[in-house]
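[step 3/7] inverse_fold.run input=structure_tokens len=452
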């Protein structure tokens, strides 16, 4: 995944917002954002093919779908398709899709819907096609948590690109200069001790504590068995688990192991600059952050190792999936059945998951790919070439302990995201507000906003 031109300010803002909302793939392709009018990418005409329209907010996704359409046509000569893609800005696409589905006019056959936006599309009677039966033949090899993320009332309405396994990225050159071996970091206490030592030796911080994203907080909540939304559907952000998660992160900050990065989280243009300057030596992020290293930190080739994320004692799970984009099919589309079969095959089959890794650099939903060394150790793969160790090694270590926060599928979660990303985390990590006071205020504000 290579960037064609640098991000502009507008994209940097959009990335920060969408990433906090639970999206990795809104900008995972490392592409410039589409113009306000969007851009249409039409596939070359294929004689006798059925035309399928698709909306997305990532140009690289368009290229993936069209390459998979070519493979589909080779395998299904009697059901050939062409995929014509409209690439629109993130908010514009979701708003336009909601209007089209509500009015029953102008919707595409297929649409990408970001995880943070997805709950609003499955309220009441969804206008999206139930994909449960289409996914059934692939299900045994798929990480179930990523199907759950785009399910409602027991029905699957979207298919993700990746697991988004949260892992740790370490700059081994910087760590070794301070006498630190990343392989010894197993727990959050280890991470804290390594960070304090790194600061003492270098005057710089090991990692980040984030104010505009919940990547690390989500990880800790999964490990601690917490949720932002209770089983009764009501906000639960002053819970013991969230309190403990933020205490761990505040303890890291107080020990100078971590600091708030420019932009409020690692996945911003400002933060890339800080990493390139050597201001931070680690990032705890979903696996799709691999693409950011290749696109924005090319000078670190051969110097970045990937490892399992630190864990708490007695962790419920080792890690969680982060971000996501659910590809959905419009139920009343003229070619809904064909579109659904294509989407399920392109995103759940082993062939499709191989291309997910090769083209996008994501950790595939189909875990049989993870242990196929002809794919994962392909010396021609740019991700294999870049990282110091094989990117799939840490994935295989945590394969059987990847959790999922049920809250992320709740319609109230965008409000939680917004409150924490604009107020709560800044109060705790920048303004000196106590964790209990900040969470108490967040709980009160969210209950009022949501009418609870």
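[step 3/7] decode complete -> sequence:
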């Amino acid at each position: 995944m290579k960037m064609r031109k640098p991000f502009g300010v507008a994209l940097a803002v959009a990335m920060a917002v969408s990433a906090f909302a639970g999206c990795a793939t809104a900008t995972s392709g490392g592409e410039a954002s589409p113009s306000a009018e969007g851009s249409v990418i039409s596939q070359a005409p294929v004689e006798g093919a059925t035309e399928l329209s698709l909306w997305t907010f990532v140009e690289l996704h368009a290229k993936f779908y069209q390459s998979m359409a070519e493979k589909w046509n080779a395998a299904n000569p009697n059901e050939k398709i062409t995929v014509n893609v409209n690439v629109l800005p993130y908010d514009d696409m979701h708003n336009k899709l909601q209007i089209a589905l509500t009015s029953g006019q102008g919707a595409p056959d297929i649409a990408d819907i970001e995880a943070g936006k997805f709950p609003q599309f499955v309220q009441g009677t969804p206008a999206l096609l139930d994909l449960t039966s289409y996914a059934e033949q692939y299900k045994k090899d798929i990480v179930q948590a990523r199907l759950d993320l785009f399910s409602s009332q027991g029905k699957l309405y979207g298919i993700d690109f990746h697991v988004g396994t949260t892992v740790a990225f370490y700059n081994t050159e910087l760590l070794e200069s301070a006498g630190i071996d990343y392989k010894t970091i197993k727990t959050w206490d280890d991470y804290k001790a390594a960070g304090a030592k790194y600061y003492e030796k270098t005057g710089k911080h090991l990692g980040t504590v984030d104010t505009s994203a919940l990547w690390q907080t989500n990880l800790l909540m999964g490990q601690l068995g917490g949720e932002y939304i209770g089983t009764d559907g009501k906000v639960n952000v002053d819970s013991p688990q969230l309190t403990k998660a933020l205490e761990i992160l505040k303890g890291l900050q107080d020990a100078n192991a971590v600091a708030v990065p420019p932009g409020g989280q690692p996945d911003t243009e400002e933060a890339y600059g800080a990493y390139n300057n050597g201001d931070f030596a680690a990032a705890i992020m979903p696996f799709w952050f691999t693409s950011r290293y290749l696109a924005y930190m090319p000078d670190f080739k051969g110097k970045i190792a990937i490892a399992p994320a630190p864990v708490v004692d007695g962790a419920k799970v080792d890690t969680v999936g982060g971000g996501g984009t659910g590809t959905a099919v419009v139920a009343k589309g003229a070619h809904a059945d064909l579109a659904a079969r294509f989407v399920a095959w392109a995103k759940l089959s082993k062939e499709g998951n191989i291309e997910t890794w090769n083209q996008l650099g994501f950790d595939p939903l189909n875990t049989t790919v993870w242990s196929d060394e002809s794919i994962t150790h392909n010396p021609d793969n740019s991700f294999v070439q870049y990282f110091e160790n094989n990117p799939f090694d840490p994935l295989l270590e945590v394969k059987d302990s990847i959790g999922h926060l049920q809250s992320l599928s709740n319609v109230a979660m965008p409000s939680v995201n917004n409150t924490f990303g604009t107020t709560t985390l800044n109060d705790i990590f920048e303004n000196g507000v106590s964790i209990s006071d900040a969470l108490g205020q967040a709980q009160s504000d969210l209950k009022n906003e949501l009418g609870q």
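[step 4/7] annotate
Residues 1-33 have pLDDT under 50 and may be disordered.
The longest strand covers residues 50-56.
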